[in-house]
Amino acid sequence: MTGFLTIGLLQWCVLLGSFSPQSLSTPSFALHTAQRGFTGFKVREPNLYAPNVYADNLEFIATLVDLPGARNKQSYWELSYELYFVPEDKYYEAIKRLPKGPSNPTLEQFPGRMLLLEGHKKIRRLDTLKERTLHLTGVRFKQQVPDPQRTKFAHLMTHFSVKVFDAELKTTLYRTGLLFTEPYQDHPQDPNQAIARKTIYLNFMVTPEGYLNLSQLARDPDSTKW
Amino acid sequence: MKSLKLRLLAVLIGTGLTLGLSHAVAQASCYYKIAGGNAYGNYECTYTHECGGWCYYSCSCSDLFPGYSCKNVLVEAGFEIVESPQC
Q1: Distance between start and end Cα atoms, chain B
Q2: pTM (2 decimals)?
Q3: What CATH number corresponds to the domain at position A204?
Q4: Residue A154, number of CB atoms within 10 A of its CB
């Protein structure tokens, strides 16, 4: 009985330790030791009117890049997605209200958002990259945004919930979250020039270890490499 | 015999709990937002990518202290600056 109590007490300590403020704010490899910023970071110019960096229409490309159980017919991928525009003033008001340091904000923390696109898809055939790609075109953007709000540092916000069952790994993976990006991107040949962003990416990949990777970077549409 | 069964049950529950917690912690490794400020200015970083155990962020800065750059702000905040993801 003493052994039972000892083990129970140890597990309770582990459980409490996992949710202590310190462990929540500094899970050693996720924060100060494992965060990387890209070069090409920018200094914000508040309320800079820039209608030229607003594309008339957006493309939305969600891809399950690869998974160990791609050829197993029991595997499936389910995705819910919403794309919003958040005016610059509303966006930075929300950012100011977030806790200092790392956080996982929720949709409700961004009032004033404007819905551009929403949908839900469950895909049961995952053999090929084409079957694992959801490609939507003609998402109306510029005309949806009132002219005075077409500023350079407004944001596009993707809210997603994903569920993948990998029949090879015999595991179900879930993830939900918010991704943000500006309406512009750097010109490929001249990083000092801003051009309209035309595509929003949402990429996932199940690793052989059973981890669900996430990225919003542009990717080669024919590659299954992460 | 009863005590042995209880101990075995405790070990099984304990193992399950530990594995479950490890999985939950591993899945929640990257935060979607990192925002704050320091002596050099304010920063706001948004998650873009992850690989190899690293979380990659795209950042913007504001209210820079004269003579300092966004890079100074981010390095002070604990970021390592890279050209592009390693994978």
Answers
A1: 54
A2: 0.80
A3: 2.60.40
A4: 23
Q: Which residues contact B9 (CB under 8 A, 6 or more apart)?
A: A4
Q: Which domain holds residue B17?
A: 1-30
Residues contacting B7, CB < 8 A, separation 6+: A3, A4
From the list B10, B35, B53, the residue facing A29 with the nearest CB is B53
Residue B82 counted as domain residue: no
What residue type is A3 in one-letter code? G
Other Cβ atoms within 10 Å of A117 Cβ, number? 17
Residues B50 and B71 both lie in one domain: yes
Give the total number of structural domains in chain B: 2
Residues from chain A contacting residue B70 (CB–CB below 8 Å):
41-43
Q: Is residue A148 part of a domain?
A: yes
Q: Is A42 helix (H, G, I), strand (E, B) or coil?
A: strand
Q: What interface predicted TM-score (ipTM) does this complex get?
A: 0.80
Count of C-beta atoms within a 10 Å radius of residue A124: 12
Asked if B85 lies within 8 A of A4 by C-beta distance, the reply is: no
Q: Exposed (0-12), middle (13-18) or buried (19+): which is A128, by Cβ within 10 Å? A: exposed
| Residue A31 resides in a domain | no
| Residue A167 buriedness (CB in 10 A; 0-12 / 13-18 / 19+) | middle
Euclidean distance between CA atoms A8 and A3, whole angstroms: 8
The amino acid occupying position A155 is H
Contacts of residue A146, defined as CB under 8 A and 6 or more positions apart, other chains included, come to none
> Which residues in chain A have their CB less than 8 angstroms from residue B51's CB?
213, 215, 226
- Residue A93 within any structural domain of the chain: yes
Each residue of A70-102: pLDDT tens digit? Answer: 999 999 999 999 999 999 999 999 999 999 999
